[in-house]
Amino acid sequence: MHDIKYIRENPEVFDKALSLRGLSKMSAKILSLDEERRSAILAAETATAEQNKAAKKIGKAKSSNDETAFNTLRDLVASKKKEVTSLASQAKELDQELADLLMTIPNIPLSDVPAGEDELENIEIFKWGTPPQIKNAKEHFEIAGVKPGMDFETASKLSGSRFVLLRGSIARVHRALSQFMLDIHINEHGMTETMTPVLVRDEAMYGTNQLPKFAEDSYKTTNGWWLIPTSEVTLTNTVSGQNLNETDLPIRLTAHTLCFRSEAGSAGKDTSGMLRQHQFEKVEMVSITHPAQSLEEHSRMTKCAQAILEKLGLPYRTVVLCTGDMGFGARKTHDLEVWLPGQGKYREISSISVCGDFQARRMLARFKPAEGGKLQFVHTLNGSGVAVGRCLIAVLENGQNEDGSVSLPPVLSPYLGNCTRINSTGGLE
């Protein structure tokens, strides 16, 4: 959520930042509502002071047997009491209206984020590895050795479209990938493994800006819980409502969870194979930092995700998203795009974003400076480290052989009983 004080002091800068997001000017509407709210608060405070002043005079009038003054003051107190109640209610409604409006406005981009309308204007900043030369490269679900272990038909019978049932070697490689990622993030990147719920309350979804903007893209149970679209929701909200010590920062967390997205806004996109599913798994990274450290942490987290792909030998590129393609809560985002031979293109496998204090204000997550002074909002960052299903796709497609077998990355061998390939009939060997 935005800092209203910043908007008061920088309305033109705020509007210009929104224009980079493709939005119209909003500062005038926000500040008008803010002024109305503040006026109601001041009026309520003034009426309260007048009520208290009259109340003090009642006792004096009563003790002096001045019945006329007593009755006048009593009526005035009663009138002011009603006025205070009305004004306080009005101020509360205006305060909620302002908060609701601010909740719908995306974060403003950092000054070095490239301006642009969509993904075509993202800028490549790094590339690693050489895409393999594979004759007649197939998509993951077409590879002979993969077909026995990737069952869309049974999944559709159980749950409908955009689900998959993994069996045998494919399920095992999928599990190995998640374990491998966790081990790297814990042992080499200094993150704390966390097992989180996948059902959360409204407050958690508001805290990480999934609500109110993206309600239709998420699943809600009949008793009011939300299924998390990513463990960014749970990991980030672990500091919700807390006043941390500066020495607690940075907090670096990782989790492997199921994730759920209705993909309401993605009808007709990537319907083939495992690329876009309603239920999927991710290894997530979240950092809670001091404001002065957040940009450095963004670079560090990007390298953590890159390390996973490099250890797996998967060619990828890193792009910085333009203002029009950036997520709602981000101030800057790096996307990692892995090479998929079956499609002959790079596809997103991780997004690493720095959010500044945007989420912290929603969660009321702050820290006490070591040298004293006022509480400050923490900065939050999140990123995939990486999406397990998409990583499985990349491993299968980049490792495919002409005979329908798949050569697996050597780093996965310890997780697969020292097996190094999937043969053309789907067995590990």
Q: What is the H-and-E element order?
A: HHHHEEHEHEEHEEHEEEHEEEHEEEHEE
| Rg over C-alpha atoms, rounded to the nearest angstrom | 28 Å
Content-based structural category: alpha+beta
Q: Spans with pLDDT under 50 lasting ≥5 residues?
A: none
Helix content: 25-40%
Mean pLDDT: 94
Per DSSP E runs of 2 or more residues, the count of β-strands stands at 18
Approximate strand percentage: 15-25%
Give the strand line-up of the largest sheet: 1-11-12-13-16-10-9-4
* Main beta sheet strand tally, sense and closure: 8 strands, mixed
Net shape: elongated
Number of helices: 11
- First and last CA, distance: 52 Å
Q: What does it look like?
A:
The protein is an alpha+beta fold. The protein contains eleven helices and 18 strands. It has helices at residues 4-9, 11-20, 27-63, 67-103, 152-159, 168-187, 202-207, 232-236, 294-311, 358-363, 388-398, and strands spanning 123-128, 150-151, 165-166, 192-193, 199-200, 219-220, 226-227, 243-245, 251-260, 279-289, 316-320, 332-340, 345-354, 366-368, 376-377, 379-387, 406-407, 421-422. The strands form five sheets. The chain has an eight-stranded mixed β-sheet with strand order 1-11-12-13-16-10-9-4. Strands 5-7-6 form a three-stranded antiparallel β-sheet. Strands 8-14-15 form a three-stranded mixed β-sheet, with no helix packed on it. A hairpin with a 7-residue loop joins strand 14 (366-368) and strand 15 (376-377). Helix 3 runs antiparallel to helix 4 and helix 6 (168-187) crosses helix 11. The radius of gyration is 28 Å and the shape is elongated. The chain starts with a helix and ends in a 7-residue tail after the last strand. The relative contact order is 0.14.
